[in-house]
Structures are given as C-alpha cells and as structure tokens.
Amino acid sequence: MSRVIEEGSQLESNTISIYRSAATMAGGRRFSFGALVVVGDRNGKVALGYAKANEVPPAIEKAQKVGKRAMKRIHLQGGTIPHAVIGRFGSSEVKLMPASPGTGVVAGTTVRAVLELAGVTDIMTKSHGSNNSKNLAKAVLNGLEQLRPKEYFGDLRGVAIGKTEVDDRVERGQAFVKAPEPAKADVEKKDAEKNDSESKPEATASDAKPEATTEKTDEKKND
Q1: How far apart are CA 122 and CA 109, in angstroms?
Q2: Could you tell me which of 19, 63, 74 has the C-alpha nearest to residue 41?
Q3: What global pTM score does this model have?
Q4: Model pLDDT for residues 87-129, shown as the tens digit of each residue
Q5: What is residue 4's predicted lDDT score, i.e. its pLDDT?
Q6: How far apart are CA 140 and CA 92, in angstroms?
Q7: Are 73 and 145 in contact, with CB atoms under 8 Å apart?
Q8: CB neighbours (10 Å) of residue 206?
C-alpha cells in the first residue's frame, strides 16, 4: 500500500520488497535489512530506491531518500502510454502495451507498483525471464524511459504524424467511461439549499393588509 511521504510535492512511496542478510561475527550472526521502494507522484514522475540498514524502518526511509534524488519524467498519453515498448534489465524482460480507458493495470505485483506510481491507469503487460523483484522493477523503469510522444518522432522524420492507433483507442474508450459522480459534500450542500428555499414563507395578501391600514391611520392623524 502506498503512502504519502511529501505533502507539498504529493510524492508517494510503495515498498516492493524487504531483504534480510546475515553476517557471521565472532559473537554470532548480525542481521541487516534492505528495502526496495518505488517513489512517484502519479503524474509522470517515478524512481526506484534501494538502501540497507540494521532495522526495517530506517532502511525504508533511506530508500525513499534515494528514490527522491533519482526522480525521472515519463511521457504518458492520458492514462496510458503512447506506444508499445519492451524494457530489459538483466535476465528480466517486460513488454508494455497501451490500452483503452477502463482497462486498468493488468500486471503483477511488482510491475503494478511501478506503473501506478508513475501515473499509468490503463495498460497491458507481459513479463518474460527472471521474476526477481529488483530486475522486474528496473526492467519496467527501463521501458518507461524509452517512451516518446508522437511529436518527437514527427520532428525526427520531418513529417506530420496524424491520429495514431492509441488516439483511436482512447477516444473509443472515453465514450464508455462514466462521467464522475458529484462529491457527497456537494450533493448535501445542494439539498440543504433546496430545503432552505422551500421552508421560507411566501408573502400573502393577508400579510400586506395590516401595513396598508397603519398607513391610513397615520394620514388621518396628520389631517
């Protein structure tokens, strides 16, 4: 589960895995812990952090600091990626494929953690080779770093690129996505305003009569 580490910058972190190692000393074995953490703002910025310490909480904090110093900008297209790409690291290979709105993140635990904190909401993935958490996370990050917008390729080739297949998917998918429902607080506010307007008494002819009579009496006194 992700948690906010910086409210001002809206950075969140998610611990992917905890590793324990032991060193044999003269008085026995001494344990240390390593933490693999992904840091992102869910808006196109993401990074990985790994650090070790004698306890788990300090290891996570150190890994978060490492991740904040290594933040990278990712090119996204709405909630998906602009084109298919294959990320590699070591013996792990992850294929990332764009998807229509409403598809969700179809991925394993490690791959999902990186993609969600990067801001991806709709994507299809397939991993090959080693399923080591470190290699998978770095392979996903390698694939995300290869993403480029269509304008980049247009400028590179000197041509204007029209509507792509991903653009068509996004347009077709948005037609089936429900509009966001109004917040509960807004609905309650509207109901309260409606009840207040209904409870206000309306002016009647009987209410106006006493005012008219008092005006006549004042005129007689003046005469």
Answers
A1: 15
A2: 74
A3: 0.73
A4: 999 999 999 999 988 889 999 999 999 999 999 999 999 999 9
A5: 77
A6: 9
A7: no
A8: 7
Identify which of 112, 43, 39, 45 has the alpha carbon closest to the alpha carbon of residue 78: 43
* pLDDT digits 0-9 by tens, 48-63: 999 999 999 999 999 9
Q: CA 129, CA 151: separation in Å to the nearest integer?
A: 33
How is residue 18 written in tokens? 């905890």
Distance CA 61, CA 54 (A): 12
Buried b (16+ CB within 10 A) or exposed e, 62-101: bbbebbbeeeeebbbbbbbbbbebebbbeebbbebbbbbb
Range among 41-55, 148-162, 175-189 with highest mean pLDDT value: 41-55
β 92-98/123-129 pair status: antiparallel
Contact 116, 109 (CB under 8 A): no
For residue 68 the two structure tokens come to: 């904040």
Q: Which amino acid is at 103?
A: T
- Name the nearest CA neighbour of 36 among 52, 23, 49: 49
